[in-house]
């Protein structure tokens, strides 16, 4: 292993190889230039190339074949397409919450290696120092804040800053449109309560975030699993069929960087989806939690950006990007805005002004975009690392997503693997992962699991 | 007006007079000792007695009669007993929320004199400096906290400290029994969702906290108004009749320092109520928000203290006593504990660890009991002041409660006064108050309003 001085150099060489593979210059099975050749070509020492190749080997990008050299490894196959009947209505079971409780318990046990939590931990991923400084300044400059009852609509500064950023997602909201919530989860929950009544059918991506399924169950609603492609997101054809047949009363979807698949819908699909929703006048709850963690290109516009008559409720939070502990999220309610404002006030009143103002101040002066760029780069790198390790160590036949952002992978193991057994076996080894069946109201995906590649 | 040096002396004299009135030594209409006589008797200057008498006059406790001296004023009559049919079931209207919105808006307008908000503002009422110091220390000693996702059940230290204090209210809960919530409001809301289903009838005190009524409406439940005495609280006879006739599916009550009446149920009534609830197996949600602000004597035990089989869900918060902005409350769910734990996690996950730990640390070392004693004394004093001013300036026939704690008075004006008109007239004068009709699902109490005597 080279010393610190050489660190950036050998990583540069390694990244150059990765870039060549991405561009297709080097393909699966191709032989890499010899160490000596590469060193001469790139004008670096042999040791540097060796370190780079070992790093690529560790990441599962290349493999050494004895007496022969280094070769580009076969890439991980994409996960299977979801095949299912068109309208599998189901009343999800709350018992799966037992399993979720075990996942949560393991996550909090410091003895466990946690690859289940969809949230990074640590200073590298959050601007904790800057936020601390702002919070501390606020405590000093406005000493009465702790003793002042926080009433809706809450911090104007934060709502203004949020509104200012909405064009990045194709929306143009004003501070008055923003309802602050206790994380994205509360926003989703309030939205679901606002647009449904007992027994309604809610269309969900399959697989989808397990808490969405439990929320649907808790509210006495039915879930409708809708086929979702691991690259292009939900099947808009399937949505259209369901709308036409009046089989769904609401939709709750993650069009950008979906959890767990990491897929993002193409713009045309978003436009078509928005049009359908407005045509059939069926409300859609849009979870934009990971939108800002899209790895490359301009951020995709929200479906809400194409929402003519206010049928889309957009929900998101700063929990995954800025301050996990603050649990400050927000929603924009379209035609349900007034109802949601009241539901929020009646459910939990407001968010702590001290935390909201801290975020508002950070968004004003803290360099949020710079911070986001750093996060995206880091997660994109770690995603490749994780995929490499899976390609190297997981059994033949393993498939994995290539997420468009965020920090989770969806991994499908060979069909004979029982995900719940694997979960328990992993727990016994002090490893916490999230079993795939949690992501379907019908217990599909028994051989899959979600893996978080943000180190904790 | 005496200078600062004499301040405590003249207040001592004034308080001595108030004490004599309380004990009945001096009664309404009695003449006070002459200034000269009092000064000699108490060994203070004539100026001090004059200042004391003027203060008592300002507070409406005594009145000067020309050429004759000072007399104890007639005391404010108690508010009227609630007379109503036994089971007035009603689906409360959400339109009253428009009025509540106007109250909230006025509360936030700095141009307004706010006598409507049931929450004090300012450093004198909250240990903001100590809390700031603790928070700041936590930010420094645990820099990763902001970036760490807060999972249920949340801060162990806070839950331990809460549990440690529960014997003061006759309970003996452990840290595991405590579910942290986003203020008392979320606790009440979750409890209501946990124990009811669409169309259920919920028994409420009459009058009761307006948000309880709106919450019942929002969840599609019916309200049953139960007569409540302004001194002894809810009529347990009426509750028993309703239980016997299966007219209520749940109760949501404030046995201690009820909002808005300020009444507290005697211990025997609490025991009887707990017994009835257990006998009829009907869940009761106990709002203990103001329990710790009881003016005198040992704190009354919660109804939960007598709850044999876990039918009582106890809910409270630190919002009114310690840190208004933090919005950290808690609940203990009895037989509904597991359901509530999940409902909380699915509704808004958890509370910010940084705020929970700050409270936990304050409860450990900050002198919470000392702080509470100060609050109680101050509020008791201000209550007498407010009653005095009402006795002096409000129209003949005005009645007001003599609350057992907290910081609100319930004021009944002569029957011909229209409370909503008064509310709007007051708004026009930049005064915000809370109209009485908000406190009844049937729009009773049109001539009453709630007045907060905590200065803001």
What labels would you give this structure?
456 residues; homodimer; Arc Repressor Mutant, subunit A; Aspartate Aminotransferase, domain 2; 14 helices; disordered N terminus; 3 domains; alpha/beta; Aspartate Aminotransferase, domain 1; four-stranded antiparallel β-sheet; nine-stranded mixed β-sheet
General form of chain A:
globular
Domain module count of chain A: 3
Structure annotation, total helices of chain A: 14
Largest interface, and how many residues on either side? A-B, 60 and 60 residues
Give the biggest beta sheet of chain A.
9 strands, mixed
Question: Kindly state the mean pLDDT of chain A as a whole number?
Answer: 89
CATH class of the largest domain in chain A: Alpha Beta
Radius of gyration of chain A: 23 Å
CATH architectural designation of the largest domain in chain A = 3-Layer(aba) Sandwich
Computed structural class of chain A: alpha/beta
Q: Roughly what percent helix of chain A? A: 40-55%
Family (chains A, B): In the C-terminal section; belongs to the class-I pyridoxal-phosphate-dependent aminotransferase family.
Pfam families (chains A, B): Aminotran_1_2, GntR
Organism (chains A, B): Limnobaculum xujianqingii
Keywords (chains A, B): Aminotransferase, DNA-binding, Pyridoxal phosphate, Transcription, Transcription regulation, Transferase
